[in-house]
Amino acid sequence: MQDKDPNHTKPNRERAQAYMKYSGMAIQMGIIILIGAFIGKKLDAYFQTERPYLTSLFALIAIFAALYLSLKDLFTKNDQK
User: Fold this and answer.
1) Does 42 fall in a domain?
2) Looking at the 3D structure of the chain, how many domains does it have?
3) pTM for the complete prediction?
4) What one-character DSSP code corresponds to residue 27?
């Protein structure tokens, strides 16, 4: 007596899709922050600042941009279901 449920793999598939979605969001956030820090570092070198003010500024701007994009993506995707 085997009860083969064709939807048995559905929770696993949904779990894998959620994992891929959130890991992709984390990678996207990391790339945005790295680009912001890289731009700030190049601007600090160009303007020859004593301290890395522009690196800090652009890294913070990139953090807020990454959070905004991730949260916007998270909330708009959940509303469509």
Assistant:
1) yes
2) 1
3) 0.79
4) H
